Predict the 3D structure of the following.
Amino acid sequence: MRIGGVIAAACAALVLGGAQTSAQTGARASVAADAPVVVELFTAQGCAGCPEANGVVEPLADEAGVILLTWPVDYWDWMGWRDTLAKPAFSARQREYVEALRLRAPATPQLIVDGRRTVAATPGLLEVAVAEAAADGDAPPRVAFGADAVRIGAGRPPTGGADVVAVVFTPGVQSVRVGSGDNRGKTVRQVNVVRSVVRLGPWSGGSRSYALPDGLDADDGVAVLVQSRQDRRILGAARR
């Protein structure tokens, strides 16, 4: 069973806030170890409000039951600082969430939990959102890594089908000294920064293996997500 610091903190927050009954709080302590919660942060080095959000999510990188991914977006570049880690594909991924979740527009910082909801980058709210996602009753397809492939187990496919995607990231913290724009002179810390995202193929509910991207190094982080095409829900995930 998965009982991490985030879950414990969330339970404490719920008790103090009186937002849940003791039975509901207890349910959050019983979480399948093979069903990690995926937390995605869309951020930018040139965004004045982003360093604080980066710091809020950083502890999640060490949680066994959480896959934290930081996506640097490029649409802040016009403000005077060209983000050294951003890619257009990362901004495009955020726009997909904006459409699927019927949001008004992309925002930075922006946190997406399991592809299903946005949450404010504040410790109490984020911890509760992670705990609620962990306690979701859906049975995810199993995701298991091999030497150079990943196997997705059988499960119920969503309406419209799903894709299996590999997200390659740099584990741990990267620090960048910003030379201009709103964060001029600041050193911005970002954790588990995504470098690339590759679609491995479709998933239609049957058990199937997929080859991992070529050129992976032993130190690379890789998260494999089974993601609904239509509403962008993450149905299953694992990382190595």
